[in-house]
Amino acid sequence: MRTLFTLAFILCCVNICSAQVIIQKDPEIEKMASEVSKDSLQSYIKTLVGFGTRNTLSTIDDKKKGIGAAREWVVSKFKQFALSSEGRMTSEVDTTTISADGKRVDAPVNLGNVMAILKGTDPNDNRIFLISGHLDSRATDVMNKTIDAPGANDDGSGTAAVLECARIMSKHKFPATIIFVAVSGEEQGLLGAAYLAEKAKKNNWNIQAVLNNDIMGSNNSSETNIIDNTRLRVFSEGLPAYELDKQAASIRNLGLENDGKARQLARYVKEIGERYVANLEVVMVYRNDRFLRGGDHLPYVQRGFAAVRITEMNENYEHQHQTVRVENNIQYGDLPNFMDFEYLRKNTCVNLSNLANLAKSPDTPNDVIIDTKNLTNVSHIIWKIPKSGKPKGYYVLLRETTSAVWQKKIFTTQTEIELPVSKDNYFFGVQSVSEDGNESLAIVPSPAR
Q1: Region(s) of the chain under CATH 3.40.630.10
Q2: Nearest-CA neighbor of 300 among 206, 233, 213, 200?
Q3: How many C-beta neighbours within 10 Å does residue 21 have?
Q4: Fewer CB atoms near the end CB (10 Å): N or C, the chain?
Q5: Where are the alpha helices (DSSP H) in 66-222?
Q6: What is the per-residue DSSP string for 241-276?
Q7: What Å distances lie between residue 182 and 52, 164, 284, CA to CA?
């Protein structure tokens, strides 16, 4: 049975831009976000810097210095947090041996990703949401494994965000599973992320979103001297890296160059982040990463997972990939005193609120289609209930073809809807919504007769 709008509801939708906007927050998520502590984040980074170097090629045997000591400390923190999880959180250092490659690995190296897994409470829900930062650091010479490389912001900030999210979220229950990971080998060529992404692919992990955090704790830029802690970038791919040859014709035919899984995740990060974090704009950047550069989300998108990079708005290259030194009266090096811990707190809250909203949501709607059997100026969208979770209803999303973000959200308890707008002029999406108002990721309908 088709769901038809009342005249008042149509007028409300048409005049949405001038209508009052009501922001509804989940009290549990709001409380979790309020517990994110800039003092805790600063403490984590102070400890990480204290290991001297965290270069992937550095020693794993020293108890106080090097990458080995750092990863043992991170796993000890995860185990500490797990005590509050009623047995749902487990942690480990997942290791593998990387052979010398004649490039950035000069001898076989023991690579270790530090992981904590917060198991979901719904046995029928196999979804996984993953937050990542990289544990390793570097000096100017990426092959120098003994010189101090503090790595406070790159990527102590991302690792600290992972730890803080684990600390707070371990006390709560979610239907879906959350993985917190500090990977190694980023500076040597995304080695830890590639190892984990390939493992996930081979084992058919249902990873629905990856939030990769890299360089997210400084508020100022070199050269341009911009100081701003009110904006945060989220990078996402446009055309999918995975099996583009199989998808290209459909993408071109439907005009969906801007609607891949990563781009949908970026829209979600923006909406939820700005919902829960005051005085912060999440800026969507239409690039998979910064210009001609890369990060740990790349191995995931290359394997078909939705993954984005979260990064500060203005990078400072005097404090990134630099050996600690003073030169021409300029202090170089990635030191903690160049960070803004209030900014890092806000950026960590963006991650936490997104992870929590995703993990509390039902699964995405199934078999979402738009009826194309006739030429009409209305749009009839149909879907099936999700594989897991019990939604109280669904949001049908609309945006004009030139809009970066969803512009309208229409709630319905049905599994179909007829909208008085032309599919020529709008893109659509459908989300499942939990009893607490937590939305799943959006699914774009496929054409069907």
Answers
A1: 35-360
A2: 200
A3: 6
A4: N
A5: 66-82, 156-169, 191-202
A6: SSSHHHHHHHHHHHT-TT-SHHHHHHHHHHHHHHHH
A7: 18, 12, 24
Amino acid letter, residue 186: E
Helix (H, G, I), strand (E, B) or coil at 319: coil
* Superfamily for domain range 7-25+364-448: Immunoglobulins (2.60.40.10)
pLDDT for residue 13: 45
User: pTM for this structure?
Assistant: 0.94
Phi and psi of 379, rounded to 5°? Answer: -120, 120
Cβ–Cβ < 8 Å for 62, 83: no
Q: Are strands 366-371 and 330-332 parallel, antiparallel or unpaired?
A: unpaired
Location of each CATH 2.60.40.10 domain in the chain: 7-25+364-448
C-alpha closest to that of 219 among 310, 314, 154, 342: 314
From the CB of residue 313, how many other CB atoms can be counted at a distance below 10 Å?
Answer: 22
| Helix, strand, coil in percent for the chain, rounding step 5 | 30, 25, 45
Distance, CA of 7 to CA of 27 (rounded, Å): 34
Q: What is the pLDDT of residues 391-435, one digit of tens each?
A: 999 999 999 999 999 999 999 999 999 999 999 999 999 999 999
Helix axes 66-82, 38-49, angle to 10 degrees: 150
Return the H-helix or E-strand segment holding 424.
Answer: none
pLDDT tens readout for residues 154-205: 999 999 999 999 999 999 999 999 999 999 999 999 999 999 999 999 999 9
Distance CA 395, CA 382 (A): 12
